[in-house]
Amino acid sequence: MEYQRSESKRAFKDQLYEQLARIGKALASPHRLELLDLLAQSERSVEELARETTLPVATVSQHLQILHAARLVDVRRRGRHRRYRLASGEVARLWLALRRTGEAHLAELEQLVTTWLPERRHWPALSIDAALELLNTGRALLLDVRPRDEYASAHLPQARSLPVAELATHLSELPRDCEIIAYCRGPYCVFADEAVALLRAHGFRAWRLEVGVPEWQERGLPLIEERSDFSWQV
Amino acid sequence: MEYQRSESKRAFKDQLYEQLARIGKALASPHRLELLDLLAQSERSVEELARETTLPVATVSQHLQILHAARLVDVRRRGRHRRYRLASGEVARLWLALRRTGEAHLAELEQLVTTWLPERRHWPALSIDAALELLNTGRALLLDVRPRDEYASAHLPQARSLPVAELATHLSELPRDCEIIAYCRGPYCVFADEAVALLRAHGFRAWRLEVGVPEWQERGLPLIEERSDFSWQV
DNA sequence: TTGATATTCAATAGAATAATTGAATGATTG
DNA sequence: CAATCATTCAATTATTCTATTGAATATCAA
Q: Which residues form the Rhodanese domain (chains A, B) (predicted)?
């Protein structure tokens, strides 16, 4: 009877970990992680995801279905597109936890950054707290240098949208009497690096914020979010 | 040149996500998740893990090496055993984030609990806050009903060790004039359920704490931890 | 040294996963 | 209703992952 009981405990555990492994398996492909990373910025159509990842549309579709089967993403129709998004903030937290675990333990990650983004040595990135200090005392302007639709989906409270691609043509509108803080998708996105490089080349006092929208939200700080009720209409 | 630049960006991203996928792949097996779950309680030898998971030792060893290659676990020799443990609290947070994502989105998980642990309907589990309230006002006794070595590795500040297997023979030592709160490995562990059932059958006022040590620690609350400097000696 | 013990290694077969291609579906627009 | 477009499906192949077995290695104790 004690034996029977532990037999059935085993069956319970087997089923429990098998269910949780559905999520683990969904995280087991670099392409799917890239998709999650993009979706953490804003919802997107299959086509948009294919363009950004340089993968065939059919491949992206299949990966999205795997993510959907693990309930990590949601789909909705809009027009003739299907728009995928993270199932919840819980999924964003999972992705951030995975990334942080990598940062903590995979030396190769650090190596990648020093190899590919060597200019980061020059100027330190601002932490959330440092940025808030500057912003709350009016000593800095905050720029969201991501594409406009990501800004529309969700952005930091005091941010102005100025995609890095348009930055060069709008330099004259920027102030020279305060700091300029640029943020993008997060620590592995280069938009803010490029923005800071360009701004500094033109004599501005520019800094990169080390985080993006998902990390900001995870900290419990407020965001300006698109009314998704509206965005799903049409 | 713009083309070249985006080509090299792609190479960077490919390498980035490939590195992070090392961690995702490590999470892609139910057995490895069970190993992480056990290691979140306390370090263990290969043999102990094999016994608890009812897997062949060689299989456990191989899974541990996969976890080690992804830097999720550490090994050290002690005597003629090798003791594995989580690489850091970051890994515990990752595991908890994965589990929570499952709880949020996998209906099958909830179904499993109602099927296998139907007695949970009878009495609600205590939240951390509810338990702290009772404990700080001296109205409850806290029991750690896990095996003794897990208690030794780390336990909640006010807890007394009384493994569920020994509970029946120590009933006379327990107070009848206050609440008794039992905790175990966490929400999917049955030790506390069994303890509460036994205690209630004998007229005690017993409750299950809904969390275990990893969740307690994640909340930033203090633990009593074994001096690992000592434990590695010998 | 020898023997016992804990763990890892190596080889294998079977299962699951991934990418690719082209065709099919299904909704929207004209 | 036909044409268009976004997405999915189906079938294939190549690859990777998993579990199992028995042998090998390394450490400790006698």
A: 136-225
